[in-house]
Design brief:
Elements (H helix, E strand, L loop, with lengths): L3 E8 L5 H14 L5 E8 L5 E2 L1 H8 L16 H8 L9 H6 L2 E3 L13 E3 L13 E5 L9 H8 L3 E2 L4 H8 L1 H10 L7 E5 H6 L1 H11 L4 E5 L9 E3 L2 H12 L4 E6 L9 E9 L4 E2 L3 E4 L7 H6 L4 E3 L6 H17 L4 E9 L6 E7 L9 H8 L4 H19 L8
Parallel strand pairs: 1-2, 1-6, 6-7
Antiparallel strand pairs: 2-3, 4-5, 8-11, 9-10, 9-11, 12-13, 12-14, 12-16, 14-15, 16-17
């Protein structure tokens, strides 16, 4: 039986570039080689697409040009480098300087294969790299915000994960919350302001925020991942700097009222969702951050945060988290996979839907696959199911008609 050709798309221009490399390496190591033929496709931090040979070098940190990235093992030292966000550990200068450029034409092609063409002196004639499905292991901006998904839709290629709408809505915290509210999901009080509103009417916006919300607050860029640009604000003196920090990253700023008040601390719960039209939820997990909240440093730089799987919840609470996770997944029209994050009030025990992540960290030790492992789905099996879900979604969409002819 002919193997399915799977393109593993990784890297990208976002601040989560290094996290993507770790996720992709884990997928390449665990994917069933007897069932799939793997084609690594890398995107540098400058946005340059590179061919499979150089993509393998990129994944291995710019090592030998030979070798198979599917067998690459990431050492603890390399993982530490990646977690610290050191680009030199993952995108060697040799790769950026000599990698063959790739033209990605946004057009359907015969046989439902995505045409990637090399553009180099070594390959004067276009050489398409044919794949049956793309697994975009891209995190954050330009990866899980609908942009890559739109390109793949134009090219009419099957891909893993949420579509254009689900990805874009899942990235934009303002739109996400509007959809959650429309679905009558429990969310925290929040205010959304535009950057120009804050810059032109600082005093008025400050009064608006303080009239609607109580301290502590969380100030966030509406569109960004990995908690970049997020600040916890304890008092009025911290609000201005937090707003300026968030405004560096997006034109929309979301300000949320903290759960638990000034003295309490919300419990941070997570639940993984898998499926298309009939999604399923994993057992819930809990993160106990080493810092005041699970920010970028706690996720990737500092040690000490704890992951509890399963979370210490009653059966009723665990079921509620699972039901809310599926409802949030459906509210943004998600498909394939997502991780839904929650906040629980330490006193009232009320559970709030915080946000959805449509392409969560996907290393073998990331929360998403670990929650499914605890639910009886192994990492290789999870990869297999996600690929099949992507193919099923593409086949379902093929039933649509786009003209009356």
């Amino acid at each position: 039986m002919k193997k399915l050709r799977v393109g593993i798309l990784f890297g990208g221009r976002s601040g989560e570039h290094e996290v993507s490399l770790l996720s992709a390496t884990s997928v390449l190591e665990a994917i069933n080689k007897s069932k799939y033929e793997v084609v690594p496709i890398g995107i540098t931090k400058q946005g340059r697409w590179v061919t499979s040979l150089h993509a393998e070098k990129l994944l291995s940190g710019g090592g030998n040009t030979g070798g198979d990235a599917r067998a690459t093992q990431t050492s603890p030292a390399t993982q530490t480098h990646l977690r610290a966000g050191d680009p030199q550990a993952t995108s060697a200068a040799a790769v950026l300087a000599s990698g063959d450029g790739m033209i990605v034409p946004p057009m359907p092609s015969a046989g439902d294969l995505m045409p990637f063409e090399t553009d180099s002196r070594a390959h004067p004639q276009p050489e398409p790299v044919q794949v049956d499905v793309i697994f975009p292991v891209l995190h954050g901006t330009f990866g899980e915000d609908g942009t890559i998904q739109g390109l793949l839709e134009l090219a009419d290629i099957a891909y893993v994960g949420a579509g254009v709408l689900g990805s874009a809505a899942g990235m934009d915290k303002d739109v996400m919350k509007r959809l959650f509210a429309a679905a009558k999901l429990p969310i925290v009080k929040h205010v959304t302001v535009l950057r120009h509103e804050w810059q032109q009417n600082t005093k008025a916006i400050r009064r608006l925020i303080q009239r609607k919300l109580k301290y502590p607050m969380f100030v966030k860029p509406a569109n960004l991942g990995s908690s970049v640009g997020i600040s916890k604000v304890h008092n009025a003196g911290e609000l201005g700097p937090a707003m300026e920090e968030a405004a560096r990253y997006d034109r929309k700023i979301v300000i949320e009222q903290g759960v638990g008040g000034l003295r309490g601390k919300a419990r941070e719960l997570e639940c993984s969702v898998l499926g298309n039209d009939q999604p399923q939820a994993s057992v819930p997990g809990e993160i106990i951050p080493a810092t005041e909240f699970y920010d970028y440093s706690a996720k990737y730089l500092d040690e000490g945060s704890q992951l509890l799987i399963p979370a210490k919840l009653s059966k009723k609470e665990a079921k509620q988290v699972q039901q809310l996770a599926i409802a949030a997944f459906q509210a943004v029209d998600c498909c394939g996979l997502a991780r839904v994050d929650f906040l629980m009030d330490p006193k009232s025990k009320k559970i709030y839907v915080n946000e959805i992540n449509t392409m969560p960290g996907f290393t073998s030790i990331s929360m998403y696959p670990k929650l499914w492992a605890a639910s009886g789905v192994s990492y290789p099996e999870l990869i297999d199911r996600l690929i099949q879900l992507g193919i099923e979604r593409h086949a379902e969409k093929k039933k649509n008609r786009y003209s009356r002819d």
